[in-house]
Amino acid sequence: MSIWEYANPKKFMQTSSWALPWVTGLAVLTLLTGLVWGFFFTPDDFRQGSTVKIIFIHVPSAMMAINCWAMMLVTSLVWLIRRHHVSVLAAKAAAPIGITMTLIALFTGAIWGQPMWGTWWAWDPRLTSFLILFLFYLGYIALWEAVEDPDTAADLTSVLCLVGSVFALLSRYAVLFWNQGLHQGASLSLDKEEHVADQFAHPLWLTMAGFVLLFVALVLLRTRTEIRARRLRALEARERMA
Amino acid sequence: MLALLLRDLRLATRAGGGFGLSLAFFLIVTVLVPFGVGPEGGTLARIAPGILWVGALLSCLLSLDRIFALDREDGSLDLLATAPIPLDGVVAVKSLAHWLTTGLPLTLAAPVLGVLLNLPQSGFLWLTLSLLLGTPALSVIGTFGAALTVGLKRGGLLLSLLVLPLYIPTLIFGAEAAKRGAEGLATGTPLLMLAGITAGTVAILPFAAAAAIRVNLR
Amino acid sequence: MVELGKYAGTVLGAYGVTIALLLGLVWMTMRQGAKMRRRLEEQERRMGRNG
User: Fold this and answer.
1) Alpha carbon of residue B202 to chain centroid
2) Domains in chain B: boundaries
3) Do B165 and A152 touch (CB under 8 A)?
């Protein structure tokens, strides 16, 4: 029993069709509980008022935006090294989820920033890094869309994902340097983890778990779609040959 | 290798090779900026290093799709791929040719355009130095982007979308070095980082670009 | 109903945007999935008949 068994599309389809309802149900349950708890049953922060409730969507989506890219990096590597189609299709399936998470993090951050910092947008290192991450997702998805042959597209996007990861990290540190060069340290960024009290942390853990489960469910579903699309393509090609 | 370099240089400088195009574009962008932000000298002096860096970067972008597209069309890219020299070397030589015909002229033109933007006296040396250190990275990263999109019919726009995010670190450190130089501050750290990026990209990206070309020629 | 105070618009806006984006993503995923499954079944049926 090894993880590589799931590299077989048939095996993956079997297992995922069994696992999908469970993961989906669990995701909905966790997410709903966490959000309802966070939205209705947490007190206001003495400094930030009720806006502190945004943390329950802002932090998990930001976490998933980064984790999604990390997952794409791993699956792209697996594709380049072991040539398992399911792996690269999972990366393709994950990208739109990642870009949505990035958008959610950016939007909720902007909406939160407006009353707290008095501005929708500041060129703070964290915010800027997320904007750059958004651009990387955009390029990755655009390359998938542009290349017709699936295997060529898989190879090219995987190489882009590898190189992009290096440059994303580089940008992260460049942005830190750039902003400190202007502002003597980030005066606007809040270090969330340090301030969070238990009454906020517990529902936050729940929503974070909920976002992870939702991500897994969506990746499974989308990968199944991609595998079907691939099979359809193969069948159509065979029909044309006959 | 040397023959390939000379051939690329000749092709680029010949009429229709697009050699002057990036320079003309750089000039026009620089001329347009004062119309946009107003002719006031202090403002221009403050933004001059950043504008010149962004302008050089965009001009560099303009000529990227020519690196492989023409060779792909007339089939010489297939010949190069099967030639008895490593494809990584071919890619590196092509980046070098692109830098010699684009990055180097842009670097030399930047101080002249700096006059137009009221760049402070102290800034000229650092602007030129930062561009000299940074533009090779732009060429190499651009070659990688061009290699990714070489098989596509209309890859130009996609190429920009792929390459521009990769340019961010180079731009940040390059413009920061030029800005600090213009303000008379110490420029050591950003220049070192810039040199590091250039060295790193030159060392690694030709291999990634060669891999992308092999995939595209499959 | 929970008391949101003067930041009601901010909080509701953030939750609204998030829920809209997530629902949009889920809807798109499910629509694409259903469409692809239908097309594949159709193709398999046709090929099963012919070949």
Assistant:
1) 13
2) 2-217
3) no
